[in-house]
Amino acid sequence: MKYIDIQNVEQTFKTRKGPFCALQGVNLTVAKGEFVALIGHSGCGKSTLLNLIAGLTLPTQGTLLCANREIAGPGPERAVVFQNHSLLPWLTCFENVYLGVERVFGTSRSAGVAAENKAQLRARTDAALALVGLTPAAQKRPGEISGGMKQRVGIARALAMEPKVLLMDEPFGALDALTRAKLQDELLQIVAKTQSTVVMVTHDVDEAVLLSDKIVMLTNGPSATIGEILSVDLARPRNRVELADSAQYQQYRKAVMDFLYTRQTHVEKAA
Ligand SMILES: Nc1ncnc2c1ncn2[C@@H]1O[C@H](COP(=O)(O)OP(=O)(O)OP(=O)(O)O)[C@@H](O)[C@H]1O
Ligand SMILES: [Mg+2]
Q1: Which pLDDT score, from 0 to 100, does residue 131 have?
Q2: Among 89, 128, 199, 259, which residue is least crowded by beta carbons within 10 Å?
Q3: What global pTM score does this model have?
Q4: Domain boundary among 141, 162, 183
């Protein structure tokens, strides 16, 4: 079943040097509950595609649907973890997460579902911060915490909203290897529990194979498009230590490396 349906999407930006076509002819479907990784060289258009699914930008051509409705703007059912975390600097970590929680659960979401009270909203916020190990930093402001911690607040904010679709732009890119592994494992558990649909941008081949059902590989821009889609049929739950010895895991890894480093060797362009 198609949950996200991207049909012949093109994104052209107006620049001082004239129009710049970032994406062209992008067709992709994502099923409900599917975990999709977007991978490709820097500047190919991964964030551009994620922003389109988020509804933060509209395509210059083509259509994007979510649950059979055209994506016409951002919505709380599609939460985003941004590449640059984008926290409000004047609010504490707690307040940054609370804002998202209040927006989703502080009003009646549908008939028969009452708005939650402040204690419930606070409990949701505390739980999300605890999940990413940030309880001690809850009262600090973004300027007072590290880059990896800021990224974790962004992840907590998105997860706390219990979105139907979780859109993540290199959420673990700024983290050290151990924290990254811990959060990847947490994410796998959360997604298994909530059955969320996830689209995640990553540069990391191992991360893509470990987490995804499908790896979408983008060609180099300009006019980047989907070069290949790899289905990752590894049983879940997945264990990173066991997978390290798995021949099947190594094959998937090799297929992505081959695409990135043999067939799409990066050409620095004057963008
Ligand atoms: N608002 C914009 N105006 C003009 N060009 C843009 C705009 N946003 C993105 N681009 C261009 O579109 C291309 C794709 O950018 P995008 O940010 O999607 O790449 P990316 O794959 O996310 O890269 P990275 O891995 O470095 O984050 C780049 O060449 C970029 O310069
Ligand atoms: Mg990007």
Answers
A1: 86
A2: 89
A3: 0.92
A4: 162
